[in-house]
């Protein structure tokens, strides 16, 4: 089996996590949610660690622990992700994962632009800020977090601006990425679109 990399980028709550998991399951590829790397570093920094030291010492078990899906950790993740040293410390792990045999899906912000510029498939999954904030609000409520829609939208706008505006590896669509706008799409339709794109690049059917 050879390597085959699917890079899926986009802003928060656009549906890239859902699409990534579904296409990985469909094709039997491994999946890495690279946001978890930054969230795990953010979690350690909230607990008092130095960002660079935390990024350099990250181990897989740090990604598996709970407590990474909170709004506080998301903001801190976005802050530490603006540090070029932190990003550098996480590159080798992501590239190794991407080129493993049997295929890999990585989702994040800079996968198609910086981590895997030669990925066989690049998708940019996005949606309007209002739709994304409404989705994240529902998720957080279901997860038992006490938040208001206004707080969720404000947090998201701050995170979007930081992720798009940073000097190192900002969130931007790669020129050769296929854009999937999920604002008016069902999950099934978004997944079907992504599966079709990957299948055509693999030469399936
Ligand atoms: O995908 P997420 O919401 O879990 O990501 C949390 C933060 O991590 C996000 O606001 C920016 C950062 N991030 C990044 O800079 N690069 C990535 N490839 C993935 C996430």
Decide which structural class fits the backbone.
alpha/beta
Alpha plus pi helix count: 10
Radius of gyration, whole Å:
16 Å
Identify every distinct bound molecule in the structure, by name, code or SMILES.
2'-deoxycytidine-5'-monophosphate
Mean pLDDT: 96
Number of strands: 5
Give the CA-CA distance, first to last residue: 18 Å
* Largest sheet geometry: 5 strands, parallel
**How much strand?**
5-15%
Instruction: Write the H/E string, N to C.
Output: EHEHHHHHEHEHHEH
How would you explain this protein's 3D organization?
41% of the residues are buried. The chain has 10 helices and 5 strands. Helix 2 packs across helix 5. The chain has 205 residues and is α/β, with parallel strands linked by helices. It is 55% helix and 12% strand. It is globular. The site of 2'-deoxycytidine-5'-monophosphate has 15 residues, from helix 2, helix 5 and helix 9.
A few lines on this structure:
This protein has 205 residues and is α/β, with parallel strands linked by helices. 55% of the residues lie in helices and 12% in strands.
SSE inventory with pairings:
Blueprint (H helix, E strand, L loop, with lengths): L4 E5 L6 H12 L2 E4 L1 H12 L4 H6 L3 H5 L6 H10 L3 H15 L5 E5 L2 H5 L5 E6 L2 H14 L6 H17 L12 E4 L5 H16 L3
Parallel strand pairs: 1-3, 1-4, 2-3, 4-5
Helix pairs in contact: 1-10, 2-5, 5-9, 8-9
The structure holds 2'-deoxycytidine-5'-monophosphate.
């Amino acid at each position: 089996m050879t390597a085959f990399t699917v890079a899926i980028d986009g802003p928060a709550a656009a549906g890239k996590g859902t699409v990534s998991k579904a296409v990985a399951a469909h094709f039997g590829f491994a999946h890495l949610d690279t946001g978890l790397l930054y969230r795990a570093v953010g979690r350690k920094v909230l607990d008092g660690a130095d960002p660079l030291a935390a990024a350099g010492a990250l181990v897989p078990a740090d990604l598996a622990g709970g407590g990474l899906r909170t709004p506080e950790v998301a903001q801190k993740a976005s802050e530490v992700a603006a540090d070029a040293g932190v990003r550098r410390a996480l590159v080798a792990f992501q590239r190794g994962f991407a080129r493993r045999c049997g295929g890999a899906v990585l989702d994040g912000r800079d996968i198609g632009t910086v981590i895997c510029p030669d990925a066989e498939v690049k998708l940019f999954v996005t949606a309007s800020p209002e739709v994304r904030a409404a989705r994240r609000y529902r998720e957080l409520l279901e997860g038992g977090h006490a938040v208001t829609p206004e707080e969720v939208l404000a947090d998201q706008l701050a995170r979007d601006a930081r992720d798009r505006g940073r000097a190192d590896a900002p969130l931007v669509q790669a020129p050769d990425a296929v854009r999937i706008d999920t604002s008016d799409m069902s999950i099934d339709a978004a997944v079907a679109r992504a599966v079709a794109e990957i299948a055509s690049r693999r030469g399936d059917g």
